[in-house]
Design a protein that fits this description.
With about 425 residues, this protein is mainly beta. About 0% of the residues lie in helices and about 35% in strands. The chain has no helices and 31 strands. The chain has a five-stranded mixed sheet with strand order 23-24-25-26-30, with no helix packed on it. Strands 2-3-5-6 form a four-stranded antiparallel sheet, with no helix packed on it. Strands 7-8-9-10 form a four-stranded antiparallel sheet, with no helix packed on it. A hairpin with a 4-residue loop joins β16 and β17. The radius of gyration is 21 Å and the shape is globular. About 45% of the residues are buried.
């Protein structure tokens, strides 16, 4: 019998958006270090008339997969998934996703190396990397392709059974589940409905990548309006025998009304022995809920966990490997002083540990622009890396060595700071 590996890749250097199934922003320990880590350019690659809003996935051999979308007003679309050589930046191969197939969704890499991603046109693709391309070969194999009912902006995610979860935005607003090997619907039959499929309809569109609990019994999504959001805790119905017939289907376990729009992905992890769901809002709040009951997590002084950043949070926070600290970044377009900042928050008390420097005495901000890119941590957790809308990638020392931290510019290039 041939055993086909399924689930999220355990050998890829960065298999999906924010690194793991919980969206914690922690590297899995497989990342290759290259020379010139002081920020000197290794290479730079142009993608033609295209924006890069997708974040990247990185395979075991270092191949970088990243999507593009047409620039506003461009006469021709560049809606592609690129495979790049990590040492040279050269194209290993390029996959065209179609005339309306903006690839804003970050790819996810399965255990067998298959690359999955969605498009603005509602296509889901599964590709195998057979590259590099030659004069007679494409460099990739299309394993399967299928449609969903709306645009896909969030990265897909994949559970240990090889179930691929895909979320859509308006007008569809659904969470789907597919067999990652075939692209077929996951069935959830009940009496009288033998062909019922696994899916969940949210109130509004889902922009953030779904998060999965460590036991994968629950999946977490946030749907938003312009003024508020609902966070859903959905029971996956994952069976003990690992079959692909999730008989209970997608069952709403809890819904949480949040007092602000949520653009960032939810983050789930075990903190202080409890399943903890962190949610960041564009109203500037970082909130924490019980990942099973949906109740508010209480801080050490028995108050609901809530950190007020005093500025919108568009990106997904990152959690330290020991789960004691959560890091967030803001885009201050509301206070009038443009106090864009990176903040470290204690996950037990909800108190600020440190922040990057405040505006000077003349009101000049430390960062000239804000952050929509999500922070990520180095392998040892000592550095936090983030792209800024000022065109710079920064590194920040995460140690608790003072109330205000400096940020070290690593490199500068136009328009760094898409949702990453």
């Amino acid at each position: 019998m041939t055993v086909v590996p399924v689930g999220l890749s355990q050998v890829a250097q960065w298999a999906k958006f924010h690194g793991d199934l919980g969206n914690t922003g922690n590297p899995p320990g497989n990342i290759t270090t290259y020379p010139n880590v002081n920020g000197t350019f290794l290479w730079k690659k142009e993608t033609g008339s295209a924006f890069v809003l997708s974040s990247a996935a990185i395979a075991q051999d270092g191949t970088i997969y990243i999507g593009t979308r047409q620039k506003n007003g461009a006469s021709e679309g560049d809606h592609k998934l690129y495979a790049l050589d990590p040492k040279t930046g050269g194209f290993k191969w390029v996959f065209d996703a179609g005339a309306k197939g903006y690839v804003d969704s970050a790819p996810v890499i399965g255990q067998d190396g298959t690359i999955y991603f969605g498009t603005l046109d509602g296509d889901i693709f599964a590709l195998k990397d057979t590259g590099p391309a030659t004069a007679t070969t494409t460099g990739y194999q299309l394993v399967w392709q299928r449609k969903v009912g709306g645009p896909v902006l969030a990265s897909p995610t994949i559970d240990r059974n090889g179930v691929l979860y895909v979320a859509t935005v308006e007008p569809d607003n659904k969470l789907y589940a597919f067999n990652s090997l075939t692209g077929s619907d996951i069935k959830a039959p009940i009496t009288g409905q033998p062909n019922r499929i696994w899916q969940y309809a949210a109130r509004n569109g889902v922009l953030g990548t779904p998060a999965l609990s460590e036991d994968q019994r629950f999946i977490y999504i946030a749907s938003r309006t312009t003024t508020d959001s609902t966070v859903y805790i959905i029971a996956t119905g994952i069976p003990a025998n690992n079959s692909l017939s999730y008989a209970n289907g997608a069952t709403l376990s809890q819904s949480i009304a949040v007092d602000g729009p949520v653009v960032a992905a939810p983050l789930i992890a075990t903190v202080n022995g409890k399943s903890t769901l962190f949610v960041a809002t564009t109203s500037g709040s970082l909130l924490a809920y019980d990942g099973i009951t949906g109740g508010a997590i209480l801080t050490s002084n028995l108050q609901p966990f809530r950190y007020d950043a005093s500025a919108p949070i568009f990106s997904t926070p990152a959690l330290s490997a020991d789960t004691t600290t959560i890091y967030l970044a803001t885009l201050d377009n509301t206070s009038g002083i443009s106090d864009h900042k990176i903040v470290a928050v204690n996950t037990t008390t909800g108190a600020q540990i440190w922040r990057t420097k405040s505006p000077d005495i003349n009101g000049n901000p430390y960062f000239s622009d804000g952050f929509t890119s999500s922070p990520a941590l180095s392998g040892d957790g000592s550095q936090l890396y983030i792209g800024c809308l000022d065109g710079t990638v920064y590194a920040v020392d995460t140690s608790d060595n003072g109330n205000e931290h400096s940020a070290i510019p690593l490199l500068t290039t136009p328009n760094v700071g898409g949702i990453a």
